[in-house]
Amino acid sequence: MRTKASGAAAGAGSKSKLPKRNGVLGRMKGTFQRVSFKKRRPKASRPNSVGRGRDGEAIGEDEFDEVRSRGVLRRWAYSLAMGIYTKMKTKKVRKPPTDKIDQTGLTALVKYKDMCLLKNLGGVQGVVSAIGSCVENGIDNDAEDIAHRREACGSNTFEKLAAAESFLRFAVGPFEYFTIFMLVILLVCAALSFGLIVTKRHGLKEGWSEVGSIIVAGLLAFSANISSFPMGRSLYKLSGVGNNRPVDVVRSGRRQQISILEVVVGDVVFLKIGDPIPADGLFLDEPSIQVDQSSMTGDSHDFVDVNCSENPFLFLGTKVVDGHGRMLATSVGMNTFWAEIMISTNHDYHEKTPLQERLNTMNFLIVKVGLGVAFLVFAVLLARYFTGNTEDESGNPEFSGSQTNLKDIVNAVVGIVAAAVAVVVVAIPNGLPLAVRLTLAYFRKRTSADHAILRNLSAGETVGSVTTLCTQETGTLMQSQMKVMQFWLGQDFVAVGAYASIAPNLLELIREGVAHNTAASIPTDKAIRSWTVLELTMNIELESYNILHVEASNSQKKRSGVLMRKKADNTVHVHWKGAAEMILAVCSSYYDASGSTTDLNDDERIKFEQVIEGMAARSFHCIAFAHKQVPQEEYAKNNGNRMLKEDNLSLLGIVGLKSPCCPGMEEAVVACHSAGVGIKMITGDNLFTAKAIATECGILRHGPQDMLDGEVVEGVEFRNYSPEERMEKLDRICVIAGSSPSDKLLLVECLKRKGHVVAVTDDGTNDPPALREAEVVLSMGIQGSKMDKDSSDIIFLNDSFTSVVSALRWGRCIYYNIQKVIQFRLTVTVSALLIISVAAISGEVPLTVFQLLWVKIVVEAMCALALASEQPTSELMEKPPVCRSERLITNIMWRNILAQALYQTFILLTLQLNKGDSIFSIKKKVKNAFIFNTYVLCQVFNVINARNLEKKNVFKGIKRNRLLCGMFGITIVLQAAVVEFLKGIGGTERLDVRQWFLCAALAGISGLIGWAVKLIPVPKKPILGFCGV
């Protein structure tokens, strides 16, 4: 066991090795030693969990752990000081010891507001010296010095949290391997077609025309994905941090203005009212400044006092609201607390959405089926050819064993391979993920007209499935603008216009309290100021008072106070303002209209409480004012202690403020209830105010007297429920009054465990845990803090609840539009596979490679775009939310798909397999053109059928979708151009008017079939739902 003497000897030995304290460096090193390592205690053994103290006395286990922890802290600080001293001694000049700076320690010092560590480092002045700076002169204005600091401690910039997607990766599509595979197949198809046409048909010009058409089709497929590339880039730019502004710093003793991006660790920055804090750091001056920390702590009214001695910690993202001074930057850029929060709430803007993942699963399955069909077609055609079951144009067998020319065999095999390749091309549904992106892009564009900005694409899908919406009242349900409606003074309300009857001395006290204890940035204070100026003719000269101390309001205290000295008579006064029930609790007397004070007994206190409850029942926010004059002898006895008195106050009066409901609020709430979306209001107001607001907005569908049990609870009651009791009462709860941010998080977690899809709106009360827990975060553009907007999915620029309902409607519209596109595209794919496979087995394939690609890429893409642009209807908000586990392809969709695909297969195969000219008197040479034209027109009519998956009237509202009407006309014009004028490329012949009419009639029958099959009921349980789709 080490003795005290040996410890002293060791300490003396360690001191003898230190260099002499010559100059500034020696004195600084000695200061660290005196502060942190004075009288180092010897190490104590720990026999039987008991040690020995510095005087040899026995100490217990808890005290032993405390002694040991202090020793570890001091040794760490000693190592830091020695590193600083060594580095600075070798340089001989005041340079930053960047090689020895522990940036993690500096970051933690401010993040955790560690006053103990700060004292061990010698206070704020010790940290200034440790990082090679100076309070008066700042850091050296030397390029090498600044670069060294930036390299060691980072720059004041933010890395892109979600890297932008490269052009090549984006271009190859949502499932890149199959897109590349399709392009390769197209090239193979082009080469085979060129060889086949040139060698067999003796037409080099004709061969090049078909090859060119196939290559153009491939380029169309490739460019389809490129079309949405700028959208992803714009979303990425929206997520960037671009707040480059000037700040004032001092370097080498000279004050200068630099960009905020150039601030480095060690810079001394000048702050004034309205300045955002440019980095994490320490405040250097006295007296204190007032800082708005709402963006960091969660309370929209969280103003804290920052001073050099008690609370010197400053954070990036906060803002100075009162005072001026200087700060020392200790952490910048990605090392700040702000960056840590942003990383935890970061969105990856180019990641696949859940719906796109499900579509990719379906696409892989379809491709596998297509490959199987292609192999079957290849095998059957090859077998039919080599068994002599195929005939040439003269009716003779194409293969006659050894008598067949080798060149003819090669040409035949090339044709068979081309047919199989066409099947694969048709089977690849590369347009479905693109259709999703186009739909979401259209949603983002249209919602901007409703004052909404979509920041996260996946939220556009999820918002349509929301089952519960958690919201607050101010700025969302109620307007942010407030107005004083009632004023209680003494024993009665003061009527509007009768304020002249109030005693002058009492009016002066009310004016003083309002002038010095309200902030123009807070809605309630702004309304009170306006009322005092207009009704009480407030005209206070602020220069006539000295402000001694200010205590800001926050979510715990719910009141603010000011201590001031009146210059005219040198008297000291305390003014308090805050929640009426909180102020009443600390009052012992009250003023009446004559200006005299009366003691507040129990009966009168009950009467005041009833007045507050009555105001709250009318959805008024109750704010009370209290005053106390501090006697000179009491103030002098406390040696000028600036702490505000919070007892024996005199109540000045109570005002009732009201925020009117947002326009259309009741209708919007009714729309949400009709759509199966539950609304839960979470507020910090008392129980009576919360009930009144919820009833006025329509959230509580019963009056306060007829309210169901459990609909309104207080935050304390909610958090004290047992887990089982909380889950049982969860669905009945509509309002949580007097809540805290932890109550909101607990509510969201319980809702998710019960299977709800939760959206949370935020109007300025920053609740990062609850926001991260919710599936969709809806922030308010006016009341919301910067961090809330950065972590949100959708921003509403007008802070209106009606915009939230609009987003719900558009979210559901997205889902149903995507289902329409899927039904249409799967109908084309299924019908094409059936036609090719059956025709290949029984005879010649009726559609060429170009014709298949034309239908697949041009016609299908244009029609899908038209379906994706369908606007939301009122019927969408009459349906329940779409469950996330519900099949994307429903039984209703399979019914419609199979009916249309079977009809198209029947019509085309009947025309193809018919021998001669018996059907419609169509010549054999124009039969292929007739089949191709009928097939394309069937897809055009199929678009109209897909406009409504369940209702029979598919023409309702068709005039509103001008894009669909335009695509309808463009598709017909392009089809007519291919058939009538580009027969060399399309492999067709011209059709007369009668034949065009017949094609349109056959295609129009698909509309009647679509109407008829909707009469067939289908079960709700999935029949063909597979692979998660």
In brief:
With 1029 residues, the protein is of the alpha+beta class.
Fold and architecture overview:
- The chain has 1029 residues and is an alpha+beta fold.
- It has 36 helices and 28 strands.
- The strands form 5 sheets. Strands 14, 15, 16, 17, 18, 19, 20, 21 and 22 form a 9-stranded mixed β-sheet that branches. An 8-stranded mixed β-sheet has the order 12-28-27-26-13-23-25-24, sandwiched between helices.
- Helix 10 (204-226) runs parallel beside helix 31 (849-868), helix 16 runs parallel beside helix 31 (849-868) and helix 33 runs parallel beside helix 36 (993-1013).
- The two termini are 73 Å apart.
- Residues 845-1016 form the Cation-transporting P-type ATPase C-terminal domain.
- Residues 121-193 form the Cation-transporting P-type ATPase N-terminal domain.
| Overall pLDDT confidence | 75
Secondary structure tally: strands: 28
Strand fraction band?
5-15%
What count of helical segments does DSSP give? 36
Structural class, by secondary structure, is alpha+beta
Q: How far from one another are the termini?
A: 73 Å
What gross morphology would you assign? elongated
Helix content: 40-55%
Query: What radius of gyration results from the CA coordinates?
Result: 39 Å
Spans of at least 5 consecutive residues with low confidence: 1-59, 84-101, 161-178, 223-242, 347-351
Largest sheet: 9 strands, mixed
